[in-house]
Amino acid sequence: MVDKTQRHLNHRTRWTIAEITFVEQHYGQLSAREIGERLGRSANGVARIVQLSGLSRGVSSCGL
Description:
Elements: H1 17-26, H2 32-39, H3 43-53
Helix pairs in contact: 2-3
């Protein structure tokens, strides 16, 4: 688990096509938290991409 004082590796950097594709392929199989851990992004960042991509199903964004 990432310490709250640490920044994610990709903090505030643009999402790449590969990252967005990964989210699209794995959302629903992995939680936003798990996807974020694999990509070095926050669960909230993943949830935002999910929402913008139209993948959101009203499920908890943090996968808790």
